[in-house]
Specification:
Elements (H helix, E strand, L loop, with lengths): L25 H13 L17 H10 L14 E8 L2 E8 L14 E3 L4 H14 L9 H5 L13 H5 L26 H10 L14 H15 L4 H13 L20 E2 L2 E2 L16 E3 H13 L3 H6 L4 E2 L7 E2 L4 E3 L6 E8 L2 E9 L2 E8 L7 H12 L6
Antiparallel strand pairs: 1-2, 1-12, 3-6, 4-5, 7-8, 8-9, 9-10, 10-11, 11-12
Helix pairs in contact: 3-7
């Protein structure tokens, strides 16, 4: 689970000459919308139209999400909620509520949201791709992959597996942030500052012994994946290893002029919230923007059982306090309450809340993206949706 400090930490990618995420032209953005429409996704959305006029899956999702959405805003509920579901051979994305408080236009399959710490699963996947290419190994130490001036335990150094399972002993976030005030204190955080912090940091516990959620550790892991790959930025590596193979065009850290009109405004306590803005060396902890359609497409890859990188991501490695019989994979939580594993990751940033949950038996995934901070109950809602899909016909 996320600690409150990360909900206010953010920073800007300044290397604008590098391709940003999955975005490169107006043609690709239009193609993304066309692909959503060709797949039968509800890209336009009829808002409050009579559900009898919609497909059965839309009516089901409208019923299940009704108590979680209030376009006029109320604490704990989403002003606007994008919902994506998929099973083998079926997928659907729709939106409920509104894009603005008191509005009547719901978000769409191509609305771009800040997905917060769901980004960490993308970092875990990038690490797995690096392992597949023999660029890194889970047993590699932080000393070997980052540099000599890093903290170590008394028994052994921090490994990449420690970073990927929140058992490194590192704090949740570095102390030497620059930007003053409560909003975006990590703005302009650099590699030099990260090196400076690690050279004097003290571990909270011995590596590999105790779970302690660390945005810092996840960010460093993403940075290591980037440097090991030979790419310059997290964005560039996401583009190469995720966007291109999965056919994504709107998954990025910085939006272009074509994407900006589709960017959802985020809200906190009913007021507009600042965008997420994290320093480049920590982008892998929570900087990605994406659409409900594209988040769904990425996580559908885990359902197929044919991607060795996804297999590494969802392997249970260490114990986790987040649920019954819980474990951690590579920056993903695995809960097994009744002999059935639920793989999940949530995100909560100043104006957005996100949740992804999937199962392999039966294979199904639910994606929930809210344009409202601190939207409550999304994990339970996603599990309820998955339970309903078990007996729901193809859609």
């Amino acid at each position: 689970m996320k600690t409150p400090i990360f909900s206010i930490l953010v920073m800007v990618l300044v290397l604008s000459s590098i391709p940003t995420g999955c975005s490169n032209s107006s043609a690709t953005s239009d193609a993304g919308l066309d692909a959503a429409q060709d797949a039968g996704l509800d890209a336009d959305h009829d808002g409050d139209a009579d559900c009898q006029d919609g497909p059965p899956i839309h009516c089901l999702l409208q019923e299940l999400t009704a108590s979680s959405v209030n376009p006029d805003y109320s604490p704990g509920k989403a002003i606007g909620l994008v919902v994506g579901v998929a099973t083998p051979g079926s997928r659907y994305v729709t939106g409920f509520g509104a894009t603005t408080p008191g509005g009547s236009t719901p978000p769409g399959a191509d609305s771009i949201y800040e997905i917060g710490s769901v980004t960490k699963v993308y970092s875990g996947y990038l690490l797995a791709r690096g392992i597949d290419r023999n660029e890194v190994a889970l047993t590699d130490s932080l000393e070997d992959t980052f540099g000599l001036n890093v903290p170590t335990g008394t028994q052994r150094p921090i490994t990449l597996l420690d970073l990927a399972t929140h058992t490194s002993g590192l704090k949740n976030f570095p102390d030497n942030v620059l930007y003053p005030g409560a909003i975006n204190p990590a703005r302009n955080y650099t590699v030099a500052l990260l090196e400076e912090y690690l050279s004097t940091a003290t571990l909270l516990h011995e590596p590999g012994t105790t779970y302690a959620y660390s945005n810092l550790g996840a960010g460093i892991l993403g940075y290591i994946a980037v440097t090991a790959s030979g790419e310059v930025t997290f964005d560039a590596l996401v583009h190469r290893e995720i966007c291109e193979p999965f056919g994504l065009v709107d998954t990025t850290t910085v939006l272009d002029t074509i994407q900006l009109p589709r960017k959802a405004m985020g809200y906190s306590n009913g007021a507009e919230a600042p965008p997420v803005d994290i320093g480049e060396p920590l982008h892998g902890s929570g900087m990605l923007r994406s659409t409900g359609d594209e988040v769904l497409r990425f996580f559908e890859g885990a359902l197929l059982g044919t991607d060795p990188a996804w297999t590494l991501v969802i392997t249970p490695y260490r114990d986790s306090p987040n649920g019954v019989n819980a474990k951690t994979g590579l920056l993903i939580n695995i809960e097994d309450p009744e002999g059935k594993a639920y793989y999940s990751k949530n995100g909560d940033v100043p104006g957005f809340t996100s949740q992804v949950v999937f199962t392999l038996n039966p294979p199904a995934v639910a994606v929930l993206l809210s344009n409202t901070a601190n939207t409550r109950g999304l994990y339970s809602l996603a599990k309820t949706i998955l339970a309903e899909l078990e007996t729901f016909p193809d859609f």
